[in-house]
Specification:
mainly alpha; Rossmann fold; two-stranded parallel ribbon; 6 strands; 284 residues; 3 domains; two-stranded antiparallel sheet; Helicase, Ruva Protein, domain 3
């Protein structure tokens, strides 16, 4: 059971079950995961996202080997092996009060640390072959081998997004594969760069100088009747040049997290014929 994707209000009902009439739509008794896993094993993924009240109920199961269904009063004995996994820092969650300290120690009896993919390069090819087999079957393709250069790229890459990134790359390669040999483009394995605080890298320094000179000549006026606006002095596409001029004019504001603010800014500069903006300042 994945605790992160299950609604917090339903985690307890999924784990421990519920009695008839315990809540709306509870028309009959329902057995939970622990009850179904009696004398077996239950796997709790992303346990760091488990709600606090459910953590207390889970602690009771681990300590007393019994639980109660939601809406019930009868204690049900259970004998089950619990395996929990998480990618968050549980000691840090304990220090902030998000995760119970007593539950942490009850779960941390036998700890298995799975290192990052970059720390176990011998597993990369094995995982890649497994993903290829799975994705090829889904796409109804027969892939027999991996290109030698692709093997080198996969083993040399740092995989900052871990196994999910590897799976994503393999799935893309399988979709685009039109033969029995899988290949991966080197451009797919480039780490994402931070957003540029100024002009985009596709715009040359020469073009930037031209825009800044035009802004200086028009005293910061971006749009307006010719020849008194910077946008009228530049030879490229009107729509793209307006956005480029805006990014230079407002400087730090080009890294806008709120999309609505950027949309308002764009509309302001595209529609106004008299708007002025000083370099490095917010839109007026």
């Amino acid at each position: 059971m994945n605790c992160a994707v299950t609604s917090p209000s339903l985690v307890a009902a999924e784990l421990f079950g519920y009695e008839k009439g315990a809540f709306t739509d509870a028309h009959q008794r329902h057995a939970g995961r622990f009850e179904l896993a009696n004398h077996g094993t239950i796997f709790l993924d992303e346990i760091g996202d488990m709600p606090g009240e459910t953590q207390l109920a889970l602690l009771r199961v681990l300590q007393k080997h019994e639980f109660e269904r939601v809406g019930g009063t009868q204690s049900i004995p259970v004998d089950v092996r619990v395996i929990a996994a998480t990618n968050c820092d549980l000691p840090a969650a304990v220090s902030t009060g998000k995760f119970r300290l007593d539950l942490f120690y009850r779960l941390n009896v036998f700890r298995v640390h799975v290192p990052s993919l970059r720390d176990r390069p011998e597993d990369i090819l094995l995982l890649a072959k497994s993903f290829i087999k799975r994705c090829a079957a889904k796409a109804a393709k027969r892939i027999r081998r991996i290109e030698n250069r692709t093997v080198e790229l996969l083993e040399e890459y740092d995989w900052p997004r871990n196994i999910r990134e590897l799976q994503n790359v393999i799935e893309r390669a399988v979709i685009l594969c039109d033969s029995d040999t899988l290949s991966v483009e080197e451009s797919w394995l480039q780490p994402e760069s931070e957003n540029d605080t100024g002009l985009r890298p596709s715009v040359s320094n020469h073009q930037r100088d031209m825009i800044e000179a035009a802004l200086a000549h028009t005293h910061g006026r971006v749009a307006g009747p010719p020849p008194n606006s910077a946008s009228r002095e530049q030879p490229w596409n009107p729509k793209s040049k307006a956005v480029t001029l805006i990014r230079i004019a407002i400087g730090p504001c080009s890294r806008v997290v709120d999309g609505r603010l950027w949309e308002r800014t764009l509309k302001l500069f595209m529609s106004s014929t008299t708007t002025r903006c000083v370099r490095g300042s917010r839109p007026c």
